[in-house]
Amino acid sequence: MARKAFMIDTSRCTACRSCQVACKQWNKLPADSEINRGSYENPPQLTPHLYNKIEFIETEVNGEFKWLFLNKRCLHCGEAGCLKVCPSTGALFRTEEGLIGFDKDKCIGCNYCVNGCPFDVPRYDADNKITKCHGCLDRVGNGLQPACVKACPTGTLQFGARDKLIAQGKTSGRKLYGEKALSGLGAMYLLDNQPQDYKLADNPSIPTSIFLWKDVIKPLGILGFWGSVGVAMLHYVTVGPKQLDDDTEAKGGE
Amino acid sequence: MTNHWIDIRNSDVILIMGSNAAENHPISFKYVLEAMDKGAKLLSVDPRFTRTSAKADLYAPLRSGTDIAFLGGMIKYIIENNLYHAEYMQLHTNATFLVNPDFKMPGELDGLFSGYDEQKRSYDKSSWSFQRDAKGVPKSDLSMQDPNCVLQLLKKHFSRYTPELVSDITGTPQEKLMEVYQIYASTGKAGKAATIMYAMGWTQHTVGTQNIRTMAIIQLLLGNIGIAGGGVNALRGESNVQGSTDHCLLFHILPGYLPTPKASWPDLAKYIEKSTPQTNDPESANWWSNRSKYITSLLRAHFDSGLTTEEDFGYSLLPKLDDGQNASWLMLFDRMFKGDVKGFFAWGQNPACSGSNANKVRKALAKLDWMVTVNLFDNETASFWKGPKMDPSQIDTEVFFLPIAASFEKEGSITNSGRWAQWRYQAVEPLGNSRHDSQVMNELYSRVCALYKKEGGAFPEAITKLSWDYGFKGLDGKIEHIDIHAVAKEINGYFLADKVVKGKSFKKGDLVPSFAYLQDDGSTNSGNWLYCQSYNGKGNNMARRSQKDPSGIGLYPEWGWCWPVNRRILYNRASVDASGQPWDKKQPVIWWNGAKWQGDVPDGGWKPLNQPGTKKSFIMLPDGVASIFGAKMKEGPFPEHYEPLECPIEKNPLSGTKNNPVIKLFYEEGGLEEDIFYSCDQRYPYVATTYRVTEHWQTGVMTRNIPWLLEMQPSMFVEMNPQLAAEKNIKNGDWVKVSSARGQVEAVAIVTKRFQPFKVQGTTIHQVGLPWCYGWSTPNTGDSANLLTPTIGDANTMIPETKAFQVNIEKRG
Q: CATH number of A4-198: 3.30.70.20, 3.40.50.410, 3.40.50.1000, 3.30.470.20?
């Protein structure tokens, strides 16, 4: 199946936050009790009960005051740090549409994915199980749009075939963020300004330590494991099964 | 709205001023963005940089309460640069009319128009009139050069509004003013359209009506009324507030904008005589000359159809206002506060938070004998007796709470800002003991009626003679279940006798096809003439759902139904020239094909203006044209800038008349302490305004009970600029006390560059803003911003001035 993705056109976002609420409604997520800290941006961060949120960024671009709105969520990376580091098979997984889902039953609560994510997305709930945007894989798998996309009144959020969204995005004249990074993000942005104005990394990458873990140490470890199995096999084939020392047995040990 | 929501996408320039559409009408932005996709420019003018401003091509700040100065400068700019649409003005407005030479303007009379009576605080309007010929038709000068013609007077009046002076009043930098003027005035050409989206940021001022008038004048100068993408568009604050206004929400009108009877109009003949506008112009349709048909049909719908012509069809049973009586919101609560009101239904409302000067409102509720609150949730009104500063042992008000069905728990019609009546269906059964409003009213009616029948009383016929045929009656005469379709059909109207009208014969019981068929002989009824056609022989037109758009401009004529007679754009005969050809060839609303009109339902079906037998294009006005000179206004036929009642400056920079000279002053010598105000007072040095937020709705009764929404906007806040915060040693997130002459609230400081200080009259003026969506009954959210707002209203409508008043702020100790 062709890879699917979100396209987030920031120029159309009015920060109405129906995406935040629709997500909570579909995914049956409770409200966090909140206080106002001197901003509209509440909660201030993603939480175990908040899979996507709008960041309200007051900034100046070329001397002009701007109030920028950015939908923050799991970007469903093509090369996903979380997936790479996850030691528990199936706790994080990629759907056939290319989204990164999770299975709480298989999560072992190691928190590795938190360190593996270049966008500070995964959160752990009270049971120490991973939560994050899973792209409404239950809806998408049944031919529906993700809840946030369905609720968006301005067309800021779109979901569909990734290559088509890219082709459309390129005609908009806006900066397309995430086409190539990390083997292509599964949630891309169309930006009116530079990525850093939205506090987005120019070239997002998986932390080197993770790269080492996943691409060097983990493979080596796996290699080591299978290596020892292999050596044992080789030994079995060439030398044959280990023979119990009849004498030892007979003697009942030393 | 003269136009409708979808039509916003047809605009070339969109001015959002006096509203914050992105935050408070989020769906409208679908169409704003569609217009911008096609190259439209979005202008945001607001004291504060909002989520609307964040999307705008241009943002211009202005001090609250100075909109007339801002827009007056635009009128000057348009006229002096010849950017107006002269042909449009000659055909469709009174710009050419000659005014009485005795008429004097504020430039000559230090801020006043001729005829002011200081004692009465009102005007003798005799000089605010047109010169008329022997037949009584206004004289005009088509060249618009006569010094007494409306255009020349307008030019003279607004010549005082120079960019320097406007900037000095509004605090808007001059270059921003000029940019706004330039972009907006670029639509004075045929084929260009600009729209205004406004809301309570314009209406809730002592000059609220004149704010809208100023914009209407601009739209008429530019030829922007009647065309696609144009108009004067009020964004209504509730999903059905248009419907409730149409059906007489306000004290001074009956359904369909018929005037409320007065004590001095004792019978129907007098009512018709006094309330029907007259014209001597044979080319004026003067549609209100049909008043007698509409009031008679209304009476036939209200009261027992057995009532006869001799009984005036029950006219005497209608409640009447005393002559000169104003029964608006502020007056109602003033009377209640003084103990004149015994009982009160708070139906779907929360005045303890929504009412201006809420402390006074809350005290007034304690003077009632009884109050019935009808709502989805408990709220500050229903529980006022246990609220802050209340001693329940001292309050004798008996309070009843009736739980009511929510919108999705009931079937019925809803009318949006664009006048579309749309039918909606019940999705789920009402929860618990809550009921449909009509069921509650039915219970009330049947019980009160039974009591009147049994016990008599002062005036029982007003109730016992009501017509109440909305469902199957049991043996006891009571209707068990109200049929909401029967209500909708009666609003449309029936023939009550066999009748031939316009060559068509109708049987008794037939639904009336449209209001052109209503009669004044008692043979038709109609609960609201404007809705006649909504539910006729073709069925329930409000339930139509066709997505066909033959116009290509988004009229969708078979989606729902729109008043009047499914006309989607009002005044659309101004969208064409004298020969009936559209100014805008690419987006025509209507056009004359040589034999008939095509496109939208034309505003009167007469031939084009250059053909014999035509009628002028503004059919609801006696002169047949739009009023640039509007003598109906209480404070003057042209708008003039006056400062808000509470303002930060000593003197009106334009004249010696500081405030609107005809507003009713509540706090006078010996007035109520509750109504106190302080203008230009060191104790309350900061301008304040109130607003809504996307996340909450109105006073928040519904949204504060939804934890997801409370999570996003958890509590009361006050926004201020960093300079003011530094002066007051307030940091972002600190708790602050905000106080006015009348009350105090606590709020979290949001220190933001989205507010900037204003340079006015050589001084720095700070403004702060607070939402009014919180109330004490939801824990930890704070209380209403309306504890601060004043008891003062607009001169014409008495809508309270909650958008500009004075406060102090202090860090909470």
A: 3.30.70.20
